[in-house]
Specification:
CATH class of the largest domain: Mainly Alpha
Number of domains: 2
Shape: flat
Largest sheet: 2 strands, antiparallel
Oligomer: single chain
Strand content: under 5%
Order of helices and strands: HEEHHHHHHHHHHHH
CATH architecture of the largest domain: Orthogonal Bundle
Number of strands: 2
């Protein structure tokens, strides 16, 4: 056998072994994926039973009326009272989210730049309200902001105002109370994202001639964007479904979508109307989150370009 033929047979043999090894690796990878899926199957079933099944059940109830399948539960949402409630809900959610970002970002930045002991103290102060019941915190704000509460008393003693300010049973008091309760949900993801930013980036920007303010806006803020988006989503979604604080601090004058749902069930025993309210809120919320994610991805693409 010639040398060329032997080389060809050797190359063919190596190619065949390589193909067999590749097939074996693919089979092993598929087997590993099947095993991982089997391990996660109980968790997936639990999520399906606890989360997805109730959503499907409520969605079905929204199309059921006294006489069978109907769209009357959605048609009544066109009424101006429901539209006003929906607008109020999203106005309050957007306002609380913005206030939490304005207040939470400097606080998270301060904690991220401090020593471990100082950061622990700041986070302890942030998390301290969680040790108190939500209802107790809401009533505390009711005492602080009422006509003869601490705020109005101090302002009158200082001569700043002559008449008490209306800080409760309105939109202002509700926003203040919700901002205080939602603030930790903004600070924690911001702090986690900022803590992972290496100080070398800021030093490199300074070495390249950037001022501290420019380095902060052009380097630090973009790197903390994951924490910003995480905090915005958490606070916004939780604010949409808030009930206790608007019910107490709003005094019945600030009607949230969640309060409409509670009224439909508790007062009118109309599960169909309540389900329709929940479905509409869920769809609008998912649409807003999808739009935000698209805008964020477009912004990241434009920066890379």
């Amino acid at each position: 056998m010639s040398t060329a033929a032997a080389n060809d047979l050797s190359i063919a043999s190596r190619g065949e072994r390589h193909s067999l090894n590749a097939d074996a690796l693919k089979r092993s990878e598929r087997g590993e994926q099947v095993r991982l899926l089997a391990l996660t199957l109980p968790a997936l079933l639990l999520v399906g039973i606890v989360a997805l099944a109730p959503i499907g059940w409520l969605s079905g109830l929204s199309f059921v009326g006294p006489n069978g399948l109907t769209l009357v539960n959605y048609q009544r949402l066109i009424h101006p009272s429901y539209e006003l409630t929906l607008i109020t809900t999203f106005q309050l959610a957007f306002l609380v989210t913005a206030l939490c970002l304005i207040l939470g970002y400097p606080l998270a930045y301060l904690a991220s730049q401090m020593s471990s002991r100082g950061a622990s103290l700041v986070l302890l102060c942030v998390l301290f309200p969680f040790w108190t019941s939500l209802l107790v915190r809401t009533y505390a704000w009711l005492v602080i902001l009422q006509r003869r509460g601490l705020v109005n008393t101090w302002l009158r003693d200082l001569g700043v105002i002559d008449e008490p300010l209306r800080l409760v049973h309105n939109f202002t008091g509700t926003a203040i109370g919700m901002t205080h309760i939602m603030l930790p949900f903004m600070v924690l993801p911001l702090y986690a994202a900022m803590k992972n930013i290496s100080p070398d980036y800021m030093r490199a920007a300074s070495n390249l001639g950037a001022s501290p303010i420019r380095a902060f806006w052009n380097v630090f803020v973009p790197l903390s964007r994951p924490g910003i988006f995480a905090g915005l989503i958490i606070v916004f979604v939780l604010s949409l479904g808030f009930y206790v604080t608007p019910a107490l601090l709003g005094g019945g004058r600030v009607m949230m979508w969640s309060m409409q749902i509670e009224r439909s069930i508790a007062v009118y025993s109309d599960w169909g109307a309540a389900s329709a309210l929940g479905v509409v809120l869920l769809v609008i919320t998912m649409g807003i989150l999808w739009l935000v994610s698209r805008l964020a991805s477009i912004g990241s693409f434009m920066e890379r370009a």
